[in-house]
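Notes from the pairing session

We agreed to fold both candidates in a single pass and log them together. This is the raw record for the first candidate, unedited. Please don't reformat it; downstream parsing expects exactly this layout.

Candidate A
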Amino acid sequence: MGARKQGESSAGAARTADLRARIEALDPDNEGDELLREQVLQTLDLIAALEADVKDKGVSILNARGAVAVNPSIPALAGQRKLLAILVGRLFPPQDTPGQRQARAAANARWGRR
């Protein structure tokens, strides 16, 4: 892995702030969205804590035996980022473009005849 550039952390912070703003703008009366919203916000907080741990301790640490090992926050961070992507995908499902709708209709017409 290459070294992280100075601007990357500020870009990540901007994306996180944008995501938090989009989440706060959701309808609070929708219980399903509210649960997902809480999970996304908790996941964002955990990601921030894990990133701070990696920044503080580094990518590699000394384990109990004194050997160099990967900081346990690294795989935890990867898992939380994956979870965040899933939750955000459920909260903000992608919208089909007109071309995608036309292609789906054509595929349904072609395969629906069989």
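Candidate B (folded immediately after A)
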Amino acid sequence: MSYKIRRLKSSLQVDKSWRLQQTVKILKEQIESLNLELRYKSYELEQIKQSKGTEELYSIIGSMLLNIDDTHEVTKNLLICDRLIKSVLTELLDAINIYNSLEQE
């Protein structure tokens, strides 16, 4: 009788272990799926930030160029625009690097 009880306990433990393994497998798959979704949402966020930065840059450049009367002012404002463009490009390259590093993981 005790042999049957031990065998039953062993069988129950194996079954419980198998169910836990299946649960772990399902949870890992869900984590991977959520990580992919997070990466995609991060990429979308970077795209939105970049488009807003570009829109702001165009409006700043346009307003600066429309309000200029002399050559010195034009030169000064073009230098400011150049700095803004460099800043936006730096942010864009950073976002691309972040995206590429996420893709490699």
